[in-house]
Every structure is written in C-alpha cells, then in structure tokens.
Design goal:
Length: about 250
C-alpha cells in the first residue's frame, strides 16, 4: 500500500498541482465576482453529487461494517465527508445566489453541456466505488479525493479571504472551515488513525496492487476532466451567462 500512497503523491504533483485552473482562480486580472460565479454551477453539482457518493456508495452497509473495523472507519469518514455540502448551501445563501428564481433555467443549465463533466465525474466515481468492494481499494479512492480536495480548497480559501475583506461576510465551503477539514487524511477519529496507518502498511498481492494502481490513475483522470471544466468556465469559454448572480458581492463593490 505504501507504493500506492507514493503513486498518489507523485500523480498529484505531476498532473494536478499546477493545473491551469488555479492560475485563473487566483488571477487578479479576473474580477473576484467572476472567479467565484463562473464555475460555481459545476462545483455545486459535484458537491451535491459527492454527498451521495459518500452516503450511498463509498460507505458500507451497517451490518457489513459492524464486523470489520476498517470498513467501520471508512463509514466514519464518509459520514463526516458527506456533510460538507451544508457549508456550500450556507455559502450560496451568503453569496445571494439563492435569489435566482427560474427553476427551469437552472435545471436546464445544470444538466446542460457546461456542467457535463461535473455530472460525469459523479457517475464515474459511483462506478469505481461499486467495483472496489475491498476496503483497501476504497481507502485508495478516499486518499485520492482527500489529496485533491486539500489542494483545491487551499486555493479556494484565498477567494474566501478576499471575499470577506470586501464584504465583511465569511464563506465556509470556500473558506477556512472547509480547508480545516480537508487535511489530506482519511480518518476523522483518533482510534481510526491507527487503523489507517496499519492499512498503509498492508502488503498487496500482484492482482490487488494492479487494481489499486488502475483505480488511482482513474480517479485522477476523472478529476482532471472536472478541473478542466472548472478552467473552461472560469475563463468564460462557451459560457454566455451564468445562472447565478452574486448580488451580495455586487452590492458590496
């Protein structure tokens, strides 16, 4: 498993840390409003979909987890990770986008081509979870998502800080609250950390190692496509008008 952990770190550094999305996300040449609003529909869809991934597919049935400490620890992680969407709902309220009234236009946009990869990434993660019943494989999925999430929200936190400076209002999903919960670790309970350390010391046979390797690369491929979509949206490519408007930010400017 240690070799798989090294693969995750190497793939993150090689393929994801310098993704062009972050150049645009932090660019002072793009107004703060656009850096928040343009890709907001895509991250919103993914966040709500990831809630279902955690609560319906990545976790284990209670009776199955009852007799397996590692599966129970994974369920603890999913239970905690599956609550982060609440911070997003709070941020949407703070940003003022809750005033968007046209439900037909909203649904049409969210299931249109501009947000296609956010949807596809959720569906593909569900398939991976269903194929990876071994808890060691699910730990690989979780570690990939934690590593990606930490880097994404480390950068998003800078937007949250700037937004609070401009408006006096705090963001949580795009701020320090979320970042503090995306530390790149799998387990949230102290007793589970011991299990996590033991899991990474497991020796995988050739078949399971090949499955884990393929799984890790697939998770990164899925998320790279999602970040590519964020990048297109934040640049304004093929996007005439967002379904969201930031009244709170506009009024504060």
């Amino acid at each position: 498993m240690r070799r798989i952990g090294d693969l995750i770190k190497q793939t993150m550094k090689k393929d994801m840390e310098q993704h062009p999305f972050f150049k645009h996300l932090l660019s002072q040449d793009i107004p703060l409003e656009d850096r928040i609003i343009r890709w907001l529909p895509s991250i919103t869809y993914f966040a709500m979909g990831f809630k279902d991934v955690c609560n319906l597919y990545l976790n284990y049935p209670l009776d199955e987890a009852k007799g397996n400490k590692l599966k129970a620890a994974i369920n603890d992680h999913c239970r905690e990770d599956g609550t982060h969407w609440k911070w997003l709902m709070a941020d949407l309220q703070t940003l003022g986008v809750n005033r968007s009234p046209n439900i037909v236009a909203t649904l049409s946009f969210m299931w249109g081509t501009d947000v296609e990869y956010a949807r596809k990434s959720v569906y593909e993660l569900i398939i991976l979870c269903q194929e990876a019943n071994d808890p060691l494989l699910r730990i690989c999925i979780i570690q990939c998502m934690e590593t990606l999430g930490h880097h994404l929200f480390k950068n998003c936190c800078q937007l949250g800080i700037q937004y609070e400076q401009n408006t006096g209002k705090k963001l949580h999903y795009f701020g320090k609250t979320h970042l503090d919960h995306e530390e790149g670790h799998l387990m949230c309970n102290p007793s589970d950390v011991i299990l996590e350390d033991e899991a990474w010391e497991e020796q995988l046979d050739d078949e399971l190692f090949q499955k884990a390797t393929k799984l890790v690369l697939e998770v990164f491929r899925i998320n790279k496509a999602r970040w590519d979509e964020y990048c297109r949206l934040i640049k304004g490519d093929n996007l005439e008008k967002s379904i969201f408007t930031l009244e709170s930010l506009t009024n504060a400017s």
